[in-house]
Amino acid sequence: MLEQSSAIPQVRPGRERISAKWRAVVREWPALAAFGLPLLLYVLTAAPTVFNLDSAEFTTAVASGGIVRATGYPLYLLLGKLWLWLPLAGDVGHRMNLFSAFWGAATLFLGDRILRRLAVGPWSRLGALGLLAISPYFWGLSLIAEVYTLHTGLMAGILLLLLRWAQHPSPSRLAWPVLLMALSAGNHAATALLIPGAVWFVLSSHPQELLRVRVWGAGILALLAGAAVFLVLPWRYATQPAFNYAGLYDAAGVFHPVDLTTLQGIWWLISGQTFASRMFAYSLSELGPEIQAYAGQLWSTFLAVGIGPGLLGCVVLFKRNWRLGGFLLLLFLANAAFYIDYRVVDKETMFLPTYLIWALWLGVGYEVLLTWLREQSDGPLRVWHLRLLLSGTVLLALLLRWPRIDLSQDWSTREQSQTILETVEPDALILGWWETIPALQYLQLVEGERPDVTLINRFLIPPEAMHRLILTEIQRRPVYINSPSVALLKETRVTKVGSLYRLSPRHRERQRNTAIELGHGKRTGER
Amino acid sequence: MKQEQRMILLRTGLVLAILLSGVALIPFIDMPVAAINWERLAGIYNPVLTVNATSGAPGSIFAFTGSGYPPNRRATIFVNGESRGHVFTNGAGGAGFLLNTTGAEPGHYNVALEVDINASAAVGIDLVPSDPVVFPPAGSGGPTVFVNPTLFLPIIGK
Q: A312 and chain B: CB distance < 8 Å anywhere?
């Protein structure tokens, strides 16, 4: 018998380690799914190449070592550059779009971790974070090179680190969220909107920690370490990059960059004074429609089943833990209030932080509803009904929204830009806005096309200077503009060429009426 | 037992009410869900000027609507490059005006609304004698300008 028992095969230690690892992986499958599934979705639907507007600006700046406009976004520039070193498929534009996809998935992964700390079960987490993942703006902004998903990823990280600190406070545990917050400010100035909630949470959770010198020491060191990311700006300035959106052109077409090696210059860039006039820009009577518009956006983000439970989650969380409840409420209100009263046409893309907070509330709310149903053994509504509803809603929304949000076949920006560069004459000067110039600059600086062409974004040249520049340059080179003013129509000969207008000197005998020559050569308004 | 059943029904009703409360907001939600489209957002830098009709008989009154202009700014109305009046853009960067073509010759007219060189948009209209007379839609607002500068004599009351 003893021989038989000794003949029983024993599991070798190596195999025990492997099986233990697999068990750990299986245990963590919800977390892996929270990252892996959205990442897969975003990779499949991401734009295949450079996208337009701000996306083209960020992509070009990252790839060419350039500088973007206020507020500088140094962390994005730095991380983006590191990201481009990864051996990923696709052109630079596509790879920068995948950068947003990665951070979108990372946001959801971190959101999953936060909800697990709040004792929210997997079905509730799936329902809440699933709705966030496939919401139009969160999904859409995970498909193009933009700063927003990096911002939400960092925000979720800050939340998680503060929860960790609150559980077992220590100087180093508080230093980490401070470090992350300082870094996050280097990605998006909206990080400032997290401060009121974070201060509330720290002061209400363990105020006595702030009496310790070591806490302050660690915090200040962390702040300085995080703020060091802003050194990217003077460093890039010193290289005199070809792509620089911090400065102005004069009437001779000479670019005057803002000196980012000075404190004054850096402050000008990172403080975003250019946009100050658009903040809190609505009157009281105008705010009502803006609030309604945001409410509508929140509703459509979380569909019908995500509103009531979200409110329930907010209330329940407040009752259970007023410190944390107040923290999240302050985060939500600060971001919502600021952006509702921010007069820019694309502000609907800026509410992602509020959607993240709502998703956390929603997870808590769903869990409360599931618990209520679990506590009753009989009844028309069962736990599995609600689980089916939560998962089914996510699946249905995914299928309905996919055709509208999928950008995987959107080559429009590249096609438009390539057509322009193929059409314009040698040594041309092209003036346009964000929907034209940054993508052209991407083709020129990143892919080496048409280095003979001069490209100027109209945002970077005062109107009077542009007018004088055009009247000077049309005497010696082809000049193109995206939309000519009435003065240019009167003072120059205007010919439509594709999506642009070519300006050339107007001869004296034709100086009578305003005329636009269409592509087919028809002249109007002339004798 | 009845008490328990009442609690179950109450709880079930509460769960359903909370879940479906969002549906009750449908009448108050007024926004179509559209995909993020760079063309839609590009309008911030390119104002747009539209007109209710692109041709009509001389004597028509066309209604123009501008959008995407800098807010709360004075914009000039041009007809074939000549200034014909002004209008102020509202807080959302929109503006409207009417163009009266009384006394204008048949032909093509280029109408532009411009705040400055960087905020200008134009649209063309044709005056064709055989076309019907165009009138502005109900509710069209804004000042009325004339293709041809027109001097009105004061009405003398008897």
A: yes
